[in-house]
Design brief:
With 457 residues, the protein is an alpha+beta fold. It is 58% helix and 18% strand. Helix 1 runs antiparallel to helix 3 and helix 6 packs parallel to helix 7.
Length: 457
Amino acid sequence: MSKLGRKLTWRISAVVIGVFALSMLVNQFFLPKYYHYEMKQKVTQAMKEVDRWDKLQIENDLGILEAKYDVTIVSERMSNNVDDLNEMLRLDLAQKRIALNRFWITGETLEELKKGAIITKLYDQGKQKSSFLVSLNEKDGLLIMAGVSIAYYDETAKVINEFNLMLMLFGSILVVALTGFLSRKITKPLEELKIVANQISKLEFEKVTVETKDELEDLAMSINVMSDDLKKAHHALLRRNKDLKYFMADLTHELKTPLALIKAYSMGIQDGLDDGTYMATIVKQTNHISAIIEELLRFSKMEVDPLRLEKIQVRKLFDELLANYQETTEMEIRIKSEISPEMSILADKAKLEMVFNNLITNAVKYATTRQIKIEWAERDNQIYFAIKNETTIVSQETLGHIWKPFYVREASRNKNYSGTGLGLAIVQTVMEQHEFKYGAMIDEGWITFYLIFDRSD
């Protein structure tokens, strides 16, 4: 048995035994007093009701009160002769099958009754092992007595306690057995949960099956959900670590080429081999390195900066950004729109501008022809945006890597446009921060980058 099982068994057993012991103490010391109190209440209530009756009712209807309160009631005319009065009361009680060894009314008692007092007395019957509790009252020249026999409770309590003791011994054995069985049923699922928790702590994301229809089953379900979430987070962390390694390798490669050129041309200047172009090359490569570093800083800052959401007319914003490229490029840009320019979304304007700028720049750089297609549509109360250009990419595996920083996508890169290789990585980060859907697909030599925004109209 587990530690918790033993603890439950002994504590429950101790509670049960304590209840039995308390019951025995109550029977021995408090129940007799309570019993006497209840009997006294019977005769007192009966006598109070008699006190409200007239003489005729008392003489004719005492049987009603006897049945109501389960007491014996007799009445006799008041007499100054105490002995005669006692004898008459004994005869009245005998007629109702109540034989008393000890019963008498004193002269002092009669005097108090004549003054209007209601007197309660207890007469011990000696060998009969009982007492007779009476309440006396004087009404309209009649002495009314309500009484009830009270058995000695000591011997009764002794028998009850002996029975309780045997019941306690038997009950204790039964309770220990039952609580041991029940605690096993409770602790077994907990042991299973403990095993699974230890496995999760060792990065072994197992699940547990508990069917108890109570909080333990709810706990098991929560642990299973936690296990799934931790498993996903762990795999995501491993993937991010792997991506970070590739990222560092790509960054090293991206910086290595311009640094090598700077070093070579600097040595050429030192050796007097400069034909007038060396310094311009050095400046160009230095600017390229600076651009990469600035983009990296912006990229890292963007991942931690909170979103500053505002209502944006998304197509209108894109058209303003596209106008800047149409003035500087000779590309043919075809736009197909099925939405109104006033349609709005809730987004961070500055980050959304970065997304559109990077997608436009990417299309201009990597298009194998002079044509770019842009499409706007409304689907299921969402805004769909797509930008397309012809490409040399044919592999789906390549398509899965294009969101990585510095990933070399095509050999046909337009050298008239310099870049840092972080554009699509920024697009991915911003879209995931907004929890917007995004993706890329290839169809008949065309690559399509699409974004799906939730409307906020």
